[in-house]
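I have a small job for you when you get a moment. Would you make up a two-line entry for one protein for me to read? No commentary is needed, just the two lines. Write everything out right here, beneath this request.
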Amino acid sequence: MTKTISNQPVLSIIIVNWNTGKLLRQCIQSVHRSTHKTLFEIWVIDNGSTDGSIEMMKTEYPKVNLVANNLNLGFSKANNFGIGKSTGRFVCLMNTDVEVLDGCLDQLSEFLKRNPKAGLVGPRILNRDKSLQISCYGHPTFWNGLCYGLGLDQVLPRSNRFGGMYRKYWPYDRLRPVDVVSGCLCVAKRDAMDEVGPLDEDFFMYMEDFDWCKRFAEKGWEVYYAPEAQAIHFGGGSSSDKSENYWIERNRAMARYWKKHHGFIGKGYILSMIFLRHLLRTIQGLIWYVLKPSQKVTLRPKIKESVASLHWLLGIRASK
């Protein structure tokens, strides 16, 4: 019996897949390659893939727990299903586009063992080229919402006061408590999860990590960033390849978060800030597009994002 098939795993790894079979294979390979000290189990929850992912899993990883859904349940609901099936003392949520580096999951599991107040921990996240990827955030507030709307978080990203909810202004070089860690890869204590509750399934995609981390804090559990543990997130770097629907879903999730935690006034506020941000960015982008043709490649995806967001806000594109 190998370490991955232990009857009593310490760590349960939940991976939600939807038509990303090649990434899923690399992700699972990295878990096996990099995890040495922690007994673990893997649960792959497939959301109706049609790219051969299920067949690949059955052929190459017959001992990995596989749940094949007929429909796309969404990220939160699929993760909750896997959490309910798993048995580990710690639970890791991992995207298929993540590659864990040597000892990453061992270190995160060990950290939770040693720190009784810690309920959730995330590693240092790197881009494909090994540069730092921003993976820690502040809880959304009316102030950082204003900074977002005015674009101050883009103009002054390193400012503690005006940098918004994105933690770009401090070095990611030491262990520290944070408000929010990225849901692309995080490890939680089951005891804490039992108290906090599952992921909110009203968040089909995006912002479920912000909501979860806020609820951990409300229950008195600390959320930590642990940079000694490292992983690569292939999908979190450039926005140039993101679809129009990606940005619309991000905006929709942000509005849902604000409605949940700040009521209808909060939802109206953040929608106005989203509108302001993308109106200003569109105007600025078009001006620079004309004045500096050499920057067209850089400006095009930003203008695309803003136009898609404005269309959604104005009802030009039908929303769910």
Remarks:
- The longest helix spans residues 244-291.
